[in-house]
Amino acid sequence: MPILQVEGRKKWKVYAPRLAEEALPRASSEDLTDAELGAPVLEVELGPGDLLYMPRGFIHQVHSPC
């Protein structure tokens, strides 16, 4: 899934699928705790014009700083 940041800034944390069965899900996952997620494989802040590609099955958290 490509994400294009048009304006402003957002901080993204991306996590790998927890299990092999979750690698190509057909539905969204339930809400997970930080302990269930583990360490992110990517932490990045996107600004205007930045593009992020996130493969299907990867879990993400997004924060918009004020």
Radius of gyration: 13 Å
DSSP summary: helix tally: 1
Instruction: Give the fraction of residues assigned to helices.
Output: under 10%
Q: List segments where confidence is low: pLDDT < 50 over at least 5 consecutive residues.
A: none
Give the overall shape: globular
- How many domain units? 1
Structural class from helices and strands?
mainly beta
Q: What strand line-up does the widest sheet have? A: 3-2-5
Strand fraction: 25-35%
Count of strand segments: 5
Can you summarize the main beta sheet?
A: 3 strands, antiparallel
Written as H for each helix and E for each strand, in order along the chain, the element string is: EEHEEE
Q: State the distance separating the first and last CA atoms.
A: 25 Å
Name its key features.
single chain; mainly beta
Describe the structure in your own words.
With 66 residues, this protein is mainly beta. The chain has one domain (2-63). It is built from one helix and five strands, in the order E-E-H-E-E-E. The protein has one helix at residues 34-37, and strands at residues 2-4, 10-15, 42-46, 51-53, 59-63. The protein has a three-stranded antiparallel beta sheet with strand order 3-2-5, with no helix packed on it. Strands 1-4 form a two-stranded antiparallel ribbon. The mean pLDDT is 89.
Please describe the topology of this protein.
Elements: E1 2-4, E2 10-15, H1 34-37, E3 42-46, E4 51-53, E5 59-63
Antiparallel strand pairs: 1-4, 2-3, 2-5
Summarize the structure.
With 66 residues, this protein is mainly β. The chain is 6% helix and 33% strand. The chain has a 3-stranded antiparallel β-sheet with strand order 3-2-5, with no helix packed on it.
